Amino acid sequence: MNKTLQMVDLRAQTAAIRPDLDAAIAAVLDRGAFVRGPFVAAFEADLAAYVEGLGSTEPVYALGVGNGTDALQIALMALGVKAGDEVVCPSFTFVATAEAAAVLGAKPVFVDIDPETFNLDPDLLHAALTTRTKAVVPVHMFGQCADMTAIRAVCDPLGIPVVEDAAQAIGSTWQGRPAGVMGDLTCLSFYPSKNLGAFGDGGAVLTTDEDLASKTRQIANHGSAKKYHHTTVGVNSRLDAIQASILSVHLGHLPAWIDARRAAASCYDAHLADLEDVTRPRRENDARHVFHQYTIRVSADVRDGLRDHLKAQGVPTMIYYPEPIHQMPPYLGPALPETERACREVLSLPMHPHLSIADTEYVAGHVRSYLEAGVPVAA
Ligand SMILES: Cc1ncc(COP(=O)(O)O)c(C=O)c1O
Fold first, then answer.
1. What's the rounded Cα separation, in Å, for the pair 2 and 168?
2. Is residue 1 included in any domain, yes or no?
């Protein structure tokens, strides 16, 4: 029987908890507090408590902001990044990671990835650092933490701050510590399709450093701690109360949603295990992967054909990411072989908490049928 699957099933997710969402939105309308105020403060406290509960030994400060891109920019501003500085990050990521540095006049300097985890390769990090490096921004790609131990071991002796881009990785851990407490600052995105999504844009900056917490709060509020009194140059970036109240409801379901994603990933793993032409996402022993995406690798010659075949069977796929940032006009930089190869070989399969075992079997079965049939030789 043919199915029609979704990459992300936001309608199913919303339908399952609709009365709670309706009540949360109604509470904001009844109170009439739409910007900052009690709903945002409550969500910030819930978010900090959630991250602390995953294994932090220190209190976490959480600040809601307009989106994940703003979170990155505000974090870099809090570290004093300015024109002429360098910010080191991967090129295999969404453009926002580099854009946040570029918009401040700093230069993104790209480091290649580990081909099995898609995360910044810490062995290549030291060579990318200069006296102009003001921050390193590892991305926890697809929901699995970068090797934060190795990254800090390179950066700490040089006094270089680390900003975690955890836009895809809320709830993930590395050696028992959560994303959100391993960097000096951490950035989250609540874009609707993220593991914790709003019904519009949203983001957050996390830190365990009280001083950085107060700096980010001021920067996000026009550089002001006191109304109409501005002590630094800031921006206007706020999480609004309706999004915050929706996020508070979603946060309550996040642990179960993450478990469901991990279970779906295990089903994919089992069904794809014997396919030699498929490289499954590697789970690091030290990491708890939250599977924002389940991304396989296949040879570049078969990827597009496989994609078309899956589409014809009602299975959508995505290519995260088709083009490395260092090959985009505003960000040109030296070659990065593993990043470029990944862009040619990756294929993300449907992944969301409402994917059934039968769905994963169906997807894997069609990956198998295409690869086992052999690819037609071009005429
Ligand atoms: C790795 C990464 N960084 C940053 C962002 C930016 O987040 P937002 O879309 O909320 O601005 C995203 C999400 O789109 C992302 O995936």
1. 31
2. no
pLDDT tens per residue, range 227-266 = 899 999 999 999 999 999 999 999 999 999 999 999 999 9
Ligand 1 geometric centre to CA of 186 (Å):
12
Ligand 1 pocket: which of 120, 168, 243, 325 to mutate (most atoms within 8 A of CB):
168
209 and 294 share one domain: no
List, for residues 172-198, the tens digit of each pLDDT value: 999 999 999 999 999 999 999 999 999
Domain of residue 343 covers 254-373
Average pLDDT value for residue range 319-341: 98
Same domain, 190 and 305: no
Q: Cα torsion at 240, 244, 245, 250 (round to 10°)?
A: 150
Domain final residue, candidates 184, 214, 248 = 248
Q: Give dist(CA 180, CA 203) in Å, integer.
A: 13
- Rounded to the nearest angstrom, the distance between the alpha carbon of 70 and the centre of ligand 1 is 9
Length of the chain, in residues:
379
Tell me which amino acid residue 136 is: V
The pLDDT score that the predictor gives to residue 379 is 40
- Which residue's CA is minimally distant from atom 8 of ligand 1? 68
